[in-house]
């Protein structure tokens, strides 16, 4: 069970502290599910005083975020009232912009999908066309949600191929689409929708969603996404690792063959171009071997606990890729003499895992669960 400790010093920002403490409580309410959790348990697990917990939960109830979930027998004294999160009290949109497809989901506070849309997309059609298509699908998604009596969203999380700068929401030289370099996607989409927007790489969004759904709060793993491109999302010590310039996880552009074929990034023999070429030839075993070799490099470099595989190419032949990548990684670990296994598995969530992770870019700060950038 998680334990939260509230550390206060003389220089603490009280308004930020109140927000932090409320996030701790909200996160425990979300983890408790429909069964709920008592105020006493909240105090024990957060390290807050019972009085502080009472004030926070009173405010959350007034805002419609929390509600009573019945009573629970006590070991002494009167039964305890338990509280639960109200999932429908808030929503977020997750938008996955791939090179040839758009997928949008509307999720409630628990991350449960309540509406979904999917449409073809031409990422090379230009920024204005892509932004208009994305905004149109989000509007349609919200209309679908309203038909089901869903309240408006708190923002839109957008996930797409990098490189990009997630802090300011500006794209860099997206591999294969250099014309996007410097485009302020976050601000452009926010202006169209009138909603807060957060932008991040597709692999980061997926890794964030997986980290929030997992039980190991301090674990380290790599999410490898093989679809129209190849990239990685890294969770190290329980936290999403973006790097100082959102440059971490450009996994597809590590060079495996110095005299290999030219990659769209400008280098030769990148793992991405080797993998995609093998896929195009129908040689999926070879693609899995190449991907496994690069994954083994990553395991050796970062000493991560596990590798999760996703992306449309992987989902089209999941057993083959899990088996092929797993065999190469296992051999690399054996040669390294580490002893412990590094499991390779299919990432849960399927084809909409990136879109669901994008929605968590909006929700995660509310629960204090990740180093996601708050929407602007």
Concise summary:
By secondary structure, the protein is an alpha/beta fold.
What does this structure look like?
The chain has 376 residues and is an alpha/beta fold. The chain is built from eleven helices and 15 strands. It has helices at 14-32, 39-46, 50-62, 127-147, 185-193, 202-213, 271-280, 284-302, 312-316, 318-336, 353-367; strands at 37-38, 66-72, 80-85, 91-97, 101-108, 113-120, 153-160, 164-165, 170-171, 197-201, 221-226, 230-236, 239-241, 306-310, 344-346. A five-stranded mixed beta sheet has the order 6-5-4-7-10. Strand 12 (230-236) and strand 13 (239-241) form a beta hairpin. Helix 4 packs across helix 5 (185-193). The longest helix has 21 residues, at 127-147. The radius of gyration is 22 Å and the shape is globular. 45% of the residues are buried. Residues 1-17 and 372-376 have low confidence and may be disordered.
Task: State the main characteristics.
disordered N terminus; five-stranded mixed β-sheet; 40% helix; 376 residues; 11 helices; alpha/beta; 21% strand
H and E string? HEHHEEEEEHEEEHEHEEEHHEHHEH
β-sheet strand percentage: 15-25%
Distance between the termini: 33 Å
Radius of gyration: 22 Å
Identify low-pLDDT runs: 1-17, 372-376
- Chain-averaged pLDDT: 87
Number of helices: 11
Helix fraction, binned, reads: 25-40%
**How many strands, which pairing sense, and closed or not: the largest β-sheet?**
5 strands, mixed
Basic shape: globular
Number of DSSP-assigned strands: 15
If strands are numbered along the chain, what order do they take across the biggest sheet? Answer: 6-5-4-7-10
What class do helices, strands and sheet pairing give? alpha/beta
